Amino acid sequence: MIHQAVYSLYKKRGVLALLAVVLVLASGCAKRDAVQSIAIGKQVWMAENLDTEKYRNGDLIRHARSVEDWNDAISKQEGAYCDYGNEPDGGRLYNWFAVADPRGLAPEGWRVPTDEDWRELEAATGGRGFETAFTGSRNCLGYFFGKGQAAFFWTATPSGEFDAWNREISEGSRKLQRVSVAKGLGLSVRCVREREE
Question: Is the pTM of this model over 0.85?
């Protein structure tokens, strides 16, 4: 079927049209959903942590590598990300200002989960959540800690003027814990969407 369509295009439009189709397909411009996901209850969760450098609208998120950059972003209440230990494969961490930015941190069709979304996940899994790498976090002083021991995830729900709810999973207990933490921490993000009926 595809061969017939390509041959027909070639006969009608010539080599340039055929070349354009090949370039579009080869360059990855054809739309596809590469997000790995898992259905849990009435929700669909990303199977991996968010790993983006851009907001949904295409604007770059500030990359705060140094302690000074991280603290500057916090003082300005500006969204920022870093990689754990400033290593490219360390695990992407975001401050809460990136989570709450109106340009949207989650990809199209997804959202950063609210505290209520996490409660629904906890109810569906008996408090176990999902499989995760223990990616650690970045503290308010800009230093990294906890990799291999714990994973920390933002919710989109503030718990006060300077704090927001998160979920934590330790390697030892593997149970989700709800904690109110400072918005300047660097935590992972796992996105969610509603399950299609």
Answer: no
